[in-house]
């Protein structure tokens, strides 16, 4: 009996979804059968997630982009928001973020808030990296791509530790938020 | 007794007038004017006098001439040439008046007053002293004004207007006080007061003032005045009946060094008065000797009024001794001399004595005495009345002057007030206009600030716009192109090692995709440049290019229809730019979200507005929910900027966007 690995891929570019699929399809073997589901936007992704929870047919791995068409009904405006749901309602699912973002703050926040099993910056990733990440995560290992690792090392080397609030405040300040405004996001 | 004493006192007063007149400043230079003046004074022949006079009077009326006229006038006064004196006194007055010289006018009055006094015309004398005093007061010459008043007081005393004289003397003292070198005049005033109080019968007061006068004369080192004061004191004691004190006073006066040579008349008077007191004490021999001695002296200097009094005294003496014949003889002599010299007072006294000595003729003497006394009293009263009138007129004059002064003061205060009012109103007006100016300036500044603000804001908007444009392009690169590259790369990597037919087809597909990315990049590059091309190239061309780009990069069919008669040249650049952006934004939205295959763009132009319609057959969206999306927001903002209307409808079958932009600027 082949082991079925249920994968959800969320990306708004069909080409990319296709690419993931083409890559991972190569991993099908006598042992594993990978079942793909795809979503182009957050609404679809959310629905599929709910569906999986309702049928108790949880996803093993979820590939998540960050910038995705929003789902305003549930106030889900990014892959990160969706990941929070995943952690909540489908805790067994492992999350691999695949993102174009290379900004420290974004990545650090992802690690801090979601602690994803995989965190890959798209520009780091090739076919081999993608497959390795898949296996690593499946084997309960953490797989971060080079840019992320460098970032984390830098972060550790820093003497001062900024907690989440500090970072948020700094971030908001950098956006030019004015004193006296209610920091709703904090 | 009273009657006998007055003549001496008059004598004293006359002396003072002359004395006061002598102090005339004499500033003589040797020139024509002076020589002429000297000749006028000394010439005897009338023809020459007239000649010199006309020559002199033809000279210009300068200060020297004025002074010389005064000298000439005074010289004739001294010469007792009353005709010429009156003439030159008139010249002096006119010259002073012409030169507007109040001191000269006052001096001319003074001279005239002295002249009238010497002529025994008391009321005229009084009148001119009064005028002189007024002039001196006007010229703020307090001392001289005081002296004039003092002279007036003495005249008043002469006619027994004691109360008036007392009043005037105190006024004179008030003026004389605090002026330099005034003791001489203070002496005079005190002496006069002593005489007045003696006349009023207030003897202790009289003694007080005579003692003050005595003190003054001693301070002045003036033996004659000392002698006079002692004489006057003696007279007061005589009146009091205290003859021994009177005698000691006369004796003190007579012991003054060479008093006989200094003033023989005074010496004779003292001797006479001493003899009279001795006679009253009963020392007949001494008295007889003294009375005879003084008569001898008076006879020798031909001093008539002194002789009369002396003879009256002797008559009284002989009557007392019982020698009626001798007494009668002396008194009748005195009486005839008094009549001769029109010495009414002594005439009166002689009548009274005669009535006493000849009881058989007493009736006639007494009636004589009464008639004379009445006429004398009448005369005195009339003079007194005249004095009072003169003074009253002066008071009136002063009051008038005061009123005028007051009016002047009111006028000045009024004028000052008006000026002040004007000044204040001027200041207020100026302040107001200043304020207005400031307000205007502030308003100008405010409007400037507003304009500046607007400029800044537009600059900011521009920068925001360009920044948002940059962000949009960056997002395009990031989201669209990089993602596509990544997708193709990751696919190609899988296909890399595969040689099968399916894979080759796939590869070709991905290579085609790369081509489309190329186009997309060209599109973005073109967008970056688009703004600048607006002015040169025709708008439709640029628009067509944009649409072609979209058609090429996306699988979209775009149908563009614009009224051919559209005159794009007449439409503002601003509208064109925004229109272009709106179309671009809409197409991007459609490309990203609509999943449409056909887009129809229509541009219509009517008189007042431009209408843009964009229709697509895509999946549509919830308008309410997406209203806040960036794409729609951008479009909305641009429409707002052009003051246009924006309308959007969306359904499952597609989206309709309609924008109306007014072409005429309001």
Structural class of chain A: alpha/beta
3D shape of chain B: rod-shaped
- Overall outline of chain A: globular
Largest interface: A-B, 22 and 18 residues
Stated plainly, the CATH topology of chain A is called Rossmann fold
Question: Low-confidence stretches of chain A at least 5 residues in length (pLDDT < 50)?
Answer: none
Instruction: List the secondary-structure elements of chain B in sequence, H or E.
Output: HHHHHHHHHHHHHHHHHHHHHHEHEEHHEE
User: What value does the average pLDDT of chain B take?
Assistant: 83
Please mark out the parts of chain B with pLDDT under 50 across 5 or more consecutive residues, or reply none: 1-30, 532-536
Topology:
The complex is a heterodimer of chains A (186) and B (666).
Chain A: E1 3-10, H1 14-25, E2 32-39, H2 42-54, E3 61-64, H3 79-89, E4 94-99, H4 104-113, E5 118-121, H5 127-138, E6 143-144, H6 146-157, H7 164-174
Parallel strand pairs in A: 1-2, 1-3, 3-4, 4-5, 5-6
Helix pairs in contact in A: 2-3
Chain B: H1 2-22, H2 32-42, H3 46-58, H4 63-78, H5 82-98, H6 102-118, H7 122-138, H8 142-158, H9 162-176, H10 183-200, H11 203-219, H12 223-240, H13 243-254, H14 259-262, H15 264-281, H16 284-300, H17 304-321, H18 324-340, H19 344-357, H20 362-495, H21 501-533, H22 539-553, E1 557-562, H23 573-594, E2 598-605, E3 609-616, H24 623-626, H25 630-641, E4 645-651, E5 654-662
Parallel strand pairs in B: 1-2
Antiparallel strand pairs in B: 2-3, 3-5, 4-5
